[in-house]
Amino acid sequence: MPKGTLVIISAPSGTGKSTICRKLLQKRKDLRYSISCTTREPRTGEKHAKHYFFLTKEEFKRKIARNEFLEWAVVHDHYYGTPRSFIESTVKSGLNIVLAIDIQGAAAIHRKMPDAILVFVAPPSIESLRERLTARRDPSESVAKRLANSKNEMSAAKNYDYLVVNDDLEKAVHHIDCIITAESLRVARQE
Ligand code: 5GP
Questions:
Q1: Are 82 and 1 contacting, i.e. CB atoms less than 8 angstroms apart?
Q2: Is 34 in the pocket of ligand 1 (CB under 6 A)?
Q3: Rounded to the nearest 5°, which phi and psi values hold at 102?
Q4: What pLDDT, on the 0 to 100 scale, is given for residue 145?
Q5: SS3 for the chain, per residue?
Q6: Residue 160, Ramachandran bin (φ over 0: left; ψ between -120 and 50: alpha; else beta)
Q7: Does residue 100 line the site of ligand 1, with CB under 6 A?
Q8: What was the pLDDT predicted at 1?
Q9: Which atom of ligand 1 is nearest to the CA of 14?
Q10: Is 13's C-beta closer than 6 angstroms to any atom of ligand 1?
Q11: Does residue 55 line the site of ligand 1, with CB under 6 A?
Q12: Burial category of 128 from C-beta neighbours within 10 Å (exposed 0-12, middle 13-18, buried 19 and up)
């Protein structure tokens, strides 16, 4: 059986990548989502083992020591990591998998799994990003920090395979859906 395709989506915080991933998962029955671990506090409505595995710093560090992450990074002062075993078993079973991770994590996974597809989702403008981050009204988040980081993140887009601008949600989802289909049909991915 051909292996599944690993699709890595990165985007500045507030670009809408969680919504894009949710819609992609509704559309594609052959797609699974890699739930990351994090030490940040859950936002309103976020659930453990659905949006993230919310861990203490100690729990997170134990997992690092046991080599349970494919990659991990400190993003906006919190630890984030991609659990290894779920990715390896899902890809082996022939299903595709989407990861929404930052630019450091994307580069680290691409080094280990060069077949992974890198998709960068950009906001239509910095102003739209500011509006979305402010509307999120999460006191634990620093809008200024996330906006400042977004400039560095945007400059990494040149290292990605695809660039999708989220100026229209349905269009952005459709484009990434097409990318996954096209990549899955590559001769090299089929036996
Ligand atoms: P947020 O706190 O807004 O959910 O995520 C902050 C940043 O961390 C985003 O860029 C998100 O993609 C990234 N992130 C989420 N999970 C992981 C992960 O497992 N590894 C890495 N390196 N970054 C992650």
A1: no
A2: no
A3: -75, 175
A4: 85
A5: CCCCCEEEEECCCCCCHHHHHHHHHHHCCCEEECCCEECCCCCCCCCECCCEEECCHHHHHHHHHCCCEEEEEEECCEEEEEEHHHHHHHHHCCCEEEEECCHHHHHHHHHHCCCCEEEEEECCCHHHHHHHHHHCCCCCCCHHHHHHHHHHHHHHHHHCCEEEECCCHHHHHHHHHHHHHHHHCCHHHCC
A6: beta
A7: yes
A8: 81
A9: 3
A10: yes
A11: no
A12: middle
Q: How far apart are CA 110 and CA 107, in angstroms?
A: 5
Residue 130 Cα to ligand 1 midpoint, Å, equals 18
Q: What is the pLDDT of residue 186?
A: 94
Residue 160: both structure tokens together? 């990605």
Sign of CA dihedral 104, 93, 60, 17: positive
Instruction: Tokens for 184, please give them.
Output: 């899955």
pLDDT at position 76, please? 85
Average pLDDT per block of 10 residues along the chain, 191 residues long: 93 93 98 98 93 98 98 93 96 96 95 96 92 75 84 94 97 98 92 74
